[in-house]
UniProtKB/TrEMBL annotation:
It holds the Pfam family HTH_17. This is Helix-turn-helix protein. Residues 7-54 form the Helix-turn-helix domain. InterPro entries: HTH_17.
Length: 55
């Protein structure tokens, strides 16, 4: 597990321009895989990029 492959909501917004509300919708409908550390949400950046390419 490489920790540099995991990004926060804010980091994903900065890197890919996906707003927090869009991220929330994509999590709710299963398009974005995520996990929680405490109250924070993390994404695997590689998985996010793959799921966006499948659109």
């Amino acid at each position: 597990m490489h920790l540099n492959n995991y990004v926060t909501v804010a980091m994903l917004k900065d890197k890919l321009g996906i707003s927090e509300s869009t991220q929330w919708r994509m999590r709710q409908d299963g398009r974005l895989g995520f996990f929680k550390i405490g109250r924070g949400i993390r994404y695997n950046l590689e998985e996010v990029l793959q799921s966006l390419q499948r659109k």
